[in-house]
């Protein structure tokens, strides 16, 4: 797939400089940058086996231990 993008002159010059220094094409650098961005921003989903998990019948629910927790302390950022 071909995509046209606009880069301001200073960014294009920086890209050209990096491409020469790394001995890579501009397209390869842009493709890698987009791949990294997409992998960091894609919406991750739980698998169906996790979403359908109902727990173990011999195990007490996690929430049953809430009464044993200490109350939260004072907020150190205030």
3D architecture notes:
- The chain is 44% helix and 0% strand.
- It has helices at 9-22, 26-41, 48-51.
- The radius of gyration is 25 Å and the shape is elongated.
- The model has no long low-confidence stretch (mean pLDDT 91).
- The protein has 78 residues and is mainly α.
Gist of the model:
With 78 residues, the protein is mostly helical. Helices cover 44% and strands 0% of the residues.
Bin the helical content.
Answer: 40-55%
Radius of gyration, taken over Cα atoms and rounded to an integer in Å: 25 Å
**Strand elements, count:** 0
Given as residue ranges, the uncertain stretches (5+ residues, pLDDT < 50) are none
- Please state roughly what percent of the residues sit in beta strands, choosing from under 5%, 5-15%, 15-25%, 25-35%, 35-45% or over 45%: under 5%
The profile of the biggest β sheet is: none
- H/E topology pattern: HHH
Topology:
Blueprint: H1 9-22, H2 26-41, H3 48-51
Features:
single chain; 78 residues; mainly alpha; 3 helices
């Amino acid at each position: 797939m071909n995509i046209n993008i606009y880069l301001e002159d200073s960014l294009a010059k920086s890209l050209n400089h990096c491409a020469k220094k790394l001995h890579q094409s501009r397209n390869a650098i842009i493709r890698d940058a987009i791949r990294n961005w997409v992998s960091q921003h894609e919406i991750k989903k739980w698998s169906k086996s996790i979403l359908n998990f109902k727990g173990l019948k011999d195990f007490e629910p996690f929430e049953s231990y809430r009464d044993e927790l200490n109350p939260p302390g004072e907020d150190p950022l205030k």
